[in-house]
Design the sequence.
């Protein structure tokens, strides 16, 4: 499916023709924010929540939102209409624009607004059935991890260390407590209870994280949001990763040791099914 059409500063155009200045502060300083919105059956999923999170990110970096939500919604729908494929992932990026290199914010500079579409690639059946191996590491990122900033060097370095170790992700700890993974949130299951770390400045408030907690509540699965010690993660019965693209994915080995019995656990299987049912009933529902 062709997903070649993007949007840049007021224009829809082929990705290969979209150009930004080398002085763009996104390029020079990583001075911008982004979002990734999944689209199911050509309908953006939880768009209002993604737009709210982007507004929070923009507020945190003191960059006025260049577009009202109605315009973001219109552009998102138009981007979907101009690209092929039923299930897409829509990427938004807003930077502080192009200006002479100087750390302080430029005055009177238009922000750069970019959107692109790609196929939404969710985990293959084999990964859902077997889970994935992860490693653990120290969360050395900055203290504004709740901001979906394009300054992702820390996340990229951490993710690459997982890839180098033949792992899918790196589960991160700061001061002895679980934060998240390089591009996903992390859930723990112990004695049948689903545990999630609280949303604070050390983790990205995942849209999928919210969905999983809502599904747990609706299905009356025991769950608790609280600080989780590194030792609890290492003794977990189950570990899950969540993100818009991974949905819910079981971690079956951590640092080379099996998690639980080394297979996706019963609570994971239940949650995975709830998520699929939810997708079928709510996300793919006729408009
Ligand atoms: N990443 N934590 C981090 C650090 C992330 O980068 C992501 C998602 C999440 C999960 O958030 P959500 O459920 O809203 O997708 C948590 C996206 C997919 C990315 O950077 O590509």
Sequence:
């Amino acid at each position: 499916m062709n997903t070649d059409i993007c949007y840049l500063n007021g224009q829809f155009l082929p990705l290969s023709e979209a150009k930004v200045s080398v002085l763009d502060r996104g390029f020079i300083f990583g001075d911008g924010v982004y979002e990734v919105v999944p689209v199911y059956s050509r309908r953006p999923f939880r768009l209002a929540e993604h737009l709210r999170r982007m507004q929070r990110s923009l507020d945190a970096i003191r960059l006025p939102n260049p577009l009202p939500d109605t315009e973001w919604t219109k552009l998102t729908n138009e981007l979907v209409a101009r690209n092929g494929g039923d299930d897409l992932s829509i990427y938004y990026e807003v930077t502080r624009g192009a200006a002479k290199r100087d750390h302080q914010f430029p005055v009177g500079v238009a922000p750069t607004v970019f959107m692109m579409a790609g196929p939404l690639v969710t985990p293959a059946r084999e990964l859902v059935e077997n889970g994935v191996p992860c490693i653990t590491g120290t969360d050395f990122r900055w203290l504004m991890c709740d901001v979906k900033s394009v300054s992702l060097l820390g996340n990229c370095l951490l993710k690459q260390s997982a890839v180098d170790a033949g792992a899918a992700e790196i589960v991160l700890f700061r001061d002895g407590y679980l934060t998240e993974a390089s591009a996903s949130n992390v859930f723990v299951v112990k004695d049948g209870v689903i545990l999630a770390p609280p949303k604070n400045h050390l983790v990205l408030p995942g849209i999928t994280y919210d969905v999983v907690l809502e599904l747990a509540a609706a299905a009356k699965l025991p769950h608790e949001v609280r600080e989780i010690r590194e030792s609890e993660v290492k003794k977990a019965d189950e570990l899950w990763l969540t993100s818009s693209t991974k949905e819910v994915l079981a971690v079956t080995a951590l640092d080379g040791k099996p998690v639980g019995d080394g297979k996706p656990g019963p609570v994971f299987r239940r949650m995975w099914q709830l998520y699929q049912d939810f997708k079928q009933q709510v996300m793919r529902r006729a408009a």
Q: What stands out?
A: The first strand starts at residue 5 and ends at 8. Helices lie at 25-29, 47-60, 69-82, 125-130, 153-164, 207-218, 230-234, 266-283. Residues 36, 155, 180, 183-185, 204, 206-209, 242-245 surround N-(5'-phosphopyridoxyl)-D-alanine (CB under 6 Å). The chain has a mean pLDDT of 97.
